[in-house]
Amino acid sequence: MTNNLQEKMFYEMEQKAIFEQAKGYAFDYADTALGRNVFPTDEAIGDLDQFIEEMPEFTFDSGDILRQLHQYGSPATVSQIGGRYFGLVNGGVIPVSLATRWLSDFWDQNTPLYLSSPIVSKLEEVTELWLKQLLGLPKSVVAGFVSGSSMAIFCGLAAARYRIFQNNDWDINNKGFDGAPKIRIVIGRQAHGTVVKAIALLGFGIDNIEWMETDAEGRVNLSAVPELDASTILLLQAGNVNSGSFDAIDEICDKAKSANAWVHIDGAFGLWAAGSSRLKHLTIGIEKADSWSLDGHKTLNTPYDNGILLCKDKEALVQALQASGSYIVYTDNRDGMMYTPEMSRRARVVELWATLKYLGKAGVDELVFGLHERAVQMGKELKAEGFEILNDVVFNQVLVACDSEEITTRTIETIQKSGECWVGGTTWLGKAVIRISICSWATTEADISRSVRAFVSARDKVTEN
Ligand SMILES: *Cc1c(COP(=O)(O)O)cnc(C)c1O
Fold first, then answer.
1. Is the pLDDT at 344 greater than 90, yes or no?
2. From 293, 295, 297, 308, mutation site for ligand 1 pocket: most ligand atoms within 8 A of C-beta
3. Which site among 118, 192, 221, 379 is 20 to 30 Å from 411 CA-CA?
4. Contact 117, 111 (CB under 8 A)
5. pLDDT, tens only, 7-36
6. What is the pLDDT of residue 88?
7. pLDDT digit string, tens, across residues 420-445
8. What is the mean pLDDT of residues 309-324?
9. From CA 420, how far away is CA 410, in angstroms rounded?
């Protein structure tokens, strides 16, 4: 059938056999991924050479493509859907969020405009409202559904840049930086790398950053904040990527607001604390900021490619991300591209909406607090085994050290190789440490205890030799 590609594709759409095949593989993956090594074995990684080949001259068999992907691809994945992956700040995937994503993949909606997808426009409108209510943010807030926090931070800072220049009688969109008034960028010493990236991308210049010092938990306290003014963009953090700590948001926002500065809060994983009755105290005052960034794909456990930008100043955001073209027809309904840097975009709000609807407010609370409880358990059990816990476990992050940096580093490598769980390393207060992030709904108390045993046996192995 290589001479009639279109016919072949119609056939595959009608027969659905390849989708059944994919479903079979996916279910096989779901059944086996939890029991195997968290990180792929050396053999699985070696088998990746199967993918090194010339691009085929002619159309290839769909079933064979799927077979190759499952046979050699699935074993070389990192098992992140299970409960013992503690690297990065990842999050697992809630079943219904995955299922609704599957369905919406069949829709293949492009989502810039209401006229390109009324259903997505409606779900964005509803989800925007739910998020504001859940996090306790003002009515005027608008949401942009973007790929992740990297892009959400970029958009928040773009809106800030537009507004702060506008307040200083400068139209940055038309005039650019040449001859522009000076704008100040103030961030914490422990701001996430993607904050610094956004600052560079937006042309502010990393050398122009005014750094605020952080305390032993990695927090910015009020005393570290310089005098602010109406030409300042200030970035705060809800959830330090190492320690999980929160800046002194309430007090600092008060100071920034009285100076007419713009405040953006990077809350990639930590802002969800606002949805937990027992952790809400960490996020007091967030409603005073101007923009916020967070991820569905972290704490909320949606599939990846799910970031959210929230902004109180709709005009600034829309102007910053301005989009026009004679064929673009805006309507009175929600046109998503006004709030995102992209034009074409997949329907990522579907799984976010589904996850919020599935969990409900009580479920979000249970999920978020559950991650915290597991982190506290991890800290306690490791401490009882003689590991040093370096941070105050206020959220879902635990920082751990062994007796020496060398033992710590080698213990990390040994844990990673064991396949029992996966943790990474980081530098904390100048020292090499183990960094644990509890962010999957699938992590159980038993997973924590099993992982602690893997820590102990890894350290034993390291110190024996
Ligand atoms: C993960 C993270 C980011 C970057 O988010 P992505 O979704 O990976 O782009 C930014 N800030 C913090 C605090 C994070 O944890």
1. yes
2. 295
3. 192
4. yes
5. 999 999 999 999 999 999 999 999 988 788
6. 86
7. 999 999 999 999 999 999 999 999 99
8. 92
9. 16
**Separation of CA 267 and ligand 1 centre (Å):** 8
Q: Is 137 in the pocket of ligand 1 (CB under 6 A)?
A: no
What spacing in Å lies between the alpha carbon of 112 and ligand 1's midpoint?
24
Q: Is residue 411 predicted with pLDDT exceeding 70?
A: yes
DSSP symbol at 296: T
Question: Where does 100-356 sit in CATH, by number?
Answer: 3.40.640.10
Which of these, 431, 376, 374, 442, lies nearest to 408 by C-alpha position?
A: 431
How far, in Å, is the centroid of ligand 1 from the Cα of 306?
Answer: 11
Q: Mutation test of ligand 1: which of 235, 240, 241, 300 has the most ligand atoms closer than 8 Å to its C-beta?
A: 241
Identify the helix (H) or strand (E) that includes residue 45: helix 42-46
Tell me the three-class secondary structure of 165-180, residue by residue: HHHCCCCHHHHCCCCC
The 8 Å CB, 24+ separation contacts for 251-255 are 251/222, 251/285, 252/220, 252/222, 252/225, 253/285, 253/286, 253/288, 253/289, 254/285, 254/288, 255/222, 255/225, 255/228
Q: Where are the domains of the chain?
A: 13-80, 100-356
> What is the token pair recorded at 6?
């279109």
Taking a C-beta distance cutoff of 8 angstroms, is the pair 202, 180 a contact? no
pLDDT at 1: 45
- 239: Cβ below 6 Å to ligand 1? yes
Q: pLDDT tens digits, residue range 199-241?
A: 999 999 999 999 999 999 999 999 999 999 999 999 999 999 9
